Amino acid sequence: MAERAARYVIIGNGIAGSVAARRLREFDRACRVSLLTDEPYPLYNRVRLPHYLKGMISREEVFMRSAEEEKARGIDFLAETTVSAVHAQEKFVECADGRRLPFDRLLIATGGRPRRLSVPGAQGPGVFTYQYLDDVNAMRELLPNARRAMVVGGSLIGYELVAAFREWNLETTWLIRGPHFMHRQIDAEAGALVSRIAQRHGVKVIYGEEVAEMQRANGSVSEARTTGGRTISCDLVGVAVGLKKNIDFLQGSTIALNEGVLTDEHLVTSHPDVYAAGDVAEFNDLVVGQRSLLGTWHNASLQGELVAKNMLGAQLVFKAVPIYSNPLFDSRIKVIGITSQSDRSLESLVKNEPDQGRYLRLFFRGAQLVGAVIIGKIDYHLRVALMKYMLTGEHVPNKQHLIATQSHTV
Ligand SMILES: Cc1cc2nc3c(=O)[nH]c(=O)nc-3n(C[C@H](O)[C@H](O)[C@H](O)COP(=O)(O)OP(=O)(O)OC[C@H]3O[C@@H](n4cnc5c(N)ncnc54)[C@H](O)[C@@H]3O)c2cc1C
Q1: pLDDT, tens digit (0-9, with 9 covering 90-100), for 226-245
Q2: How do residues 92-142 score in pLDDT, each as one tens digit?
Q3: Pair type for strands 112-114 and 127-128
Q4: Which numbered atom of ligand 1 lies nearest the CA of 131?
């Protein structure tokens, strides 16, 4: 590394990039850190967006930092700055406005952006994805006067939209293309359990159909026609049909890409001075023995911490079991480790107790436990055992015993 003050550039001001910026400045007081984001805001908490959408907290309570705080910490915070290309060999990033920023080490922490519906009528007022503060600001403007909503997509984000619309007392239809909610991670019985929970909270759930087109009245959305021939009246549509990692600007950069930015277990990309962290990093995951793309806040934050230290010269290995825990109205779903969504060859075992509103599915690669989906309550000791097996990679001596003999009541 050069003897003058080191220059670090971070693309993306989500939790991964923001934590990394702070740690770099803390551990190397002389270094220069530029933190770039295409959004107009300093760091805010995406996990709190559902609370803001439901009207439970104010817009101000979503924010975690201010631009002044970043400046006071010696971070050069550049909002509304889109990076359009990375020149890894020449060591500079190019911004859409033509600026060029040189770096000694670069961090890519650009997360993902929601996929949109491409059917006729889907572009324009009344149809929203759910990823950014601006998405929620725009929905909040319509919500007080809306009466009917539709949510497209049987994902956790789809669920979050459904729950928020019901919180505003909207007549809500949930359109799920697959046979049930999260159909790649849970089976039909668990899907039925989630359906019952949603229906009990006033949601109309439709499976196996997609939006064919949307009609508009006075510019805003008024109804959707489905591939099954139904017409659904709606003045608000939430779209939750998956995320695409923000890597387009890296095409042609020589940095190896797959679905995300490929890294080793130290979060170093194919270029030794370029790192990736957070949702966009497709890293060599030693816990599950494959490349993983994770989508949790906690993971992004941990990776931000670790990558900063590695950018300063450490050789730390990223090892963690991701847990995504989400309410499902009055129940809860936890997705731990990897599931059949990312590896369809995994073996799975299921324990379903619909009368108690509980479901447990464990995912194995050979004798190794690599993931779990839990709906409803789970015994603390069983959860500790699951985490221990996953973190250590210790073989499970008897899989049936693990799932069957442990109680998962509280
Ligand atoms: C509504 C919602 C609810 C959620 N709930 C939970 C939850 O309960 N639990 C949980 O664990 N996780 C949850 N998540 C997921 C969690 O928020 C993410 O895993 C986490 O925020 C990822 O952080 P990140 O720093 O990797 O990326 P991001 O937060 O996505 O930040 C990336 C930033 O980079 C910017 N960017 C992208 N490309 C460029 C470019 N070319 N130039 C400049 N800037 C760029 C983006 O605009 C963005 O600001 C939720 C997400 C959403 C949307």
Answers
A1: 999 999 999 999 999 999 99
A2: 999 999 999 999 999 999 999 999 999 999 999 999 999 999 999 999 999
A3: unpaired
A4: 53
What is the bridge-based pairing of β-strands 281-285 and 290-293? Answer: antiparallel
> pLDDT tens for residues 245-273?
999 999 999 999 999 999 999 999 999 99
pLDDT at 408: 45
Q: Which helix (H) or strand (E) holds 69?
A: helix 67-72
CB 164 within 8 A of CB 53: yes
Q: At which residue do the structure tokens 């400045």 appear?
A: 25
Please tell me the distance from the alpha carbon of residue 389 to that of residue 180, in angstroms, as a whole number. Answer: 29
Taking the centre of ligand 1 as the mean of its atom positions, its distance from the CA of residue 254, in whole angstroms, is: 24
Q: Does the beta carbon of 174 lie inside 6 Å of ligand 1?
A: no
- Phi and psi at 19, nearest 5°, equal -65, -45
Mutate to test the pocket of ligand 1, among 139, 165, 297, 299 (most ligand atoms within 8 A of CB): 297
Check if 296 has its Cβ closer than 6 Å to any atom of ligand 1: yes
Residue ranges and CATH numbers for the domains of the chain are 7-113+244-311 (3.50.50.60), 116-241 (3.50.50.60), 338-405 (no CATH)
pLDDT at 188 over 90: no
The atom number, within ligand 1, closest to the CA of 304 reads: 25
The closest alpha carbon to 307, from 2, 15, 5, 3, belongs to 15
CB 16 within 8 A of CB 300: yes
pTM of the complete model: 0.93
